[in-house]
Design a protein that fits this description.
With about 150 residues, the protein is mainly α. It has six helices and no strands. The longest helix is centred in the N-terminal third of the chain and has 26 residues. The structure holds ascorbic acid.
């Protein structure tokens, strides 16, 4: 019994200490995961964009729902850019993701921060507040794509 308890303890400690990458069974799974998160984020971000740009009527409740999803999703893709996921599947991630890791991390943190601001702005419940936060959030998407994503 003691042996089993010790094994469980060691296994748990090992699991906690393993890099995020190890949470994916295959590198392809990491690529699929990050692309999925980014795609769903873009879908909800575009709905906010439609409202911010006057292409859809402003609806405070819908804006708040979409922005909350964007904030949550903005945190997810980054753990899936682990070592060994650079030339896998149909990734459009450029080698710079891995050769300029500090810059990539900064760009991802900028997006997370702007998505949080966007969510806070959406909770205000006015089109003006949404518009103010939407631009910088889109800028954070673009900033990262410019350096780290193939066209
Ligand atoms: C979107 C989307 C992006 C960003 C980016 C903003 O709706 O899918 O990747 O906005 O185009 O510049």
């Amino acid at each position: 019994m003691k042996k089993i308890a010790a094994f469980v303890l060691v296994a748990t400690a090992a699991a906690l200490a393993t890099p995020a990458m190890a949470q994916f069974a295959k590198p392809e799974d990491a690529v699929k995961y990050r692309q999925s998160a980014l795609t769903v984020m873009a879908t909800h971000f575009s709905r906010l964009g439609a409202m911010a740009n006057g292409k859809a009527p402003f609806d405070a409740k819908q804006a708040a729902e979409n922005a909350a999803i964007v904030e949550t999703l903005s945190k997810l893709p980054w753990a899936a850019f682990g070592e060994g996921t650079d030339k896998v599947g149909n990734t459009k991630a450029l080698p710079e993701v891995w050769s300029q890791q500090a810059k990539f991390k900064e760009a991802s943190e900028k997006l997370i921060a702007e998505a949080a601001k966007l969510n806070a702005a959406a909770k205000v419940g006015t089109l003006d507040a949404l518009k103010t936060a939407f631009g910088p959030a889109g800028g954070a998407c673009k900033n990262c794509h410019d350096t780290f994503k193939a066209k």
